[in-house]
Structure formats: structure tokens, C-alpha cells
Specification:
binds zinc ion, 231 residues, alpha+beta, six-stranded antiparallel β-sheet
Length: 231
């Protein structure tokens, strides 16, 4: 059987090559996955809903968004302040959207969790479960941030699709925020090994400084300046 669109071979069902190509060309400003056409929330919707909690920055023709948020218990469920945009598994604005994130007071008081993922929706769901079992047992709420792309390009143009870039940002933020110490060694947990190229490193540095400057104050040590010294 041959796919009518790409003329490639396919043994059964829809053509996966064509499905992936379609996905690459989805606009960054729109949700990548949806089944219900009435739930196509866009970046403009998110901006309108979150107001000053969502800020943007343009670097070298790319546009980035930083969303500061809270997570708190609502009955027996942990919910984010942007929960209308994080519904239906991955069928939401953050489904398949690469991001770097952070949470204050993670696990234990005065500790910060920094992470990255290629699918923010999935990560946010996982972290919510952890927060519910740890932080939110002792505190009313916790604060966090989410860094992602919001430009006018297509999904394939999103620089944060590079895991090297995400890991470089993660490493720079881990140096600057109060990350937990390894329970066994008592030392800072070792970052994942990453060797970004020059452009990725420049971009990672600029984005990390911006996030450090604008993230919720509960993630920061008082009076601490941005540093690239790893010690
Ligand atoms: Zn095809």
C-alpha cells in the first residue's frame, strides 16, 4: 500500500511520515494536540488569561515566554493557576511543547526543583503528583515557572526542541537556584552531562539570566546575583 501524499510505502493505517510532517508545521502559537475543536486554546488566550504572570522576550528573531504560576490543593486535587490550559491528558496548549520549568519548596521547604522536558504537559502532570505527596502536604501552595517558545514560527523552528539547549538552561539555573542536595552524598546533585554548541550556549545564558531575574522570589536566595560559577 502506498501513501497518496508522500508516495511512501506503508503497511497499514495512516502514514506516519506524513503525520510527523504535519506536526512539524503546526504554529507555535497554537495547541499542537487536540481532539475537540472547541478546545483549541492558543498562546493569545493564555496571555489574556494570565495577564502580567506571563511575560515575553525576543532574542535573535525567536520569542520566548515565561509563565509564573502557583500550584495548590483544590479538594483532593493539586491544580495549577493555568489549569484551563492543562486539561485532557496532553490535548492542551502544553501537549508536545518543550519547556524548562522550576518549582519552589519542592519536596522539602527551601528547596527548588529545576527540570526540562520535550512535552511540558506530561511533565506538569508528573510534578503535580509529586507536589501533592510532598510540598502541598505541608504548605498551602507553591510557586513555579515555565519557560517555552511563543513566536510566530512553526513547531520545527522552536529552539527549545533542542535537548542540548534545554539541558544547558537547566544546568545554569541549577547553579543559581537552591536545588536539593543528594540525600546520600550531601552534595549538589550532578547535572546531566551536556555539550551545547556556541549558539545554544549563548541562548541558554541569556534565557537563564532572564528566568533568574523574573522567576518567583520564593525560588531565590535573598540578594543573590546571577552566577556561572559551578561551586
Ligand atoms: Zn505519507
Amino acid at each position: 500500500m502506498t501513501c497518496k501524499e508522500c508516495k511512501g510505502d506503508q503497511t497499514e493505517g495512516d502514514c506516519y511520515i506524513c503525520a510527523m510532517k504535519k506536526k512539524q508545521s503546526k504554529p507555535i502559537e497554537k495547541a499542537y494536540r487536540y481532539s475537540d475543536p472547541t478546545d483549541r486554546k492558543t498562546f493569545a488566550d493564555l496571555k489574556k488569561d494570565q495577564g502580567s504572570k506571563l511575560i515575553t522576550k525576543s532574542i535573535g528573531g525567536q520569542k520566548f515566554a515565561l509563565l509564573n504560576f502557583e500550584c495548590k490543593m483544590e479538594g483532593s486535587r493539586a491544580v495549577y493557576t493555568f489549569s484551563d490550559f492543562h486539561r485532557y491528558k496532553d490535548v492542551n496548549f502544553f501537549g508536545d511543547r518543550p519547556a524548562v520549568y522550576g518549582f519552589a519548596n519542592y519536596d522539602r521547604e527551601e528547596k527548588v526543583k529545576i527540570g526540562e522536558g520535550k512535552n511540558a504537559s506530561q511533565r506538569l502532570r508528573t510534578q503535580k503528583t509529586v507536589l501533592k505527596d510532598t510540598t502541598l502536604k505541608n504548605m498551602d501552595k507553591t510557586e513555579g515557572f515555565l519557560l517555552f517558545s511563543c513566536g510566530s514560527g512553526k513547531m520545527k523552528d522552536d529552539p527549545l526542541r533542542s535537548r542540548n539547549l534545554r539541558l544547558a538552561i537547566e544546568a545554569l539555573l541549577q547553579i543559581n537556584f537552591k536545588i536539593p542536595l543528594d540525600k546520600k552524598t550531601g552534595k549538589k546533585r550532578r547535572e546531566q552531562h551536556v555539550v551545547p554548541d556556541k549558539n545554544e550556549l549563548d541562548l541558554a545564558l541569556e534565557l537563564s539570566k532572564w528566568v533568574f531575574d523574573k522567576a518567583p522570589s520564593s525560588l531565590k536566595r535573598e540578594g543573590r546575583k546571577f552566577t556561572t560559577k559551578h561551586s
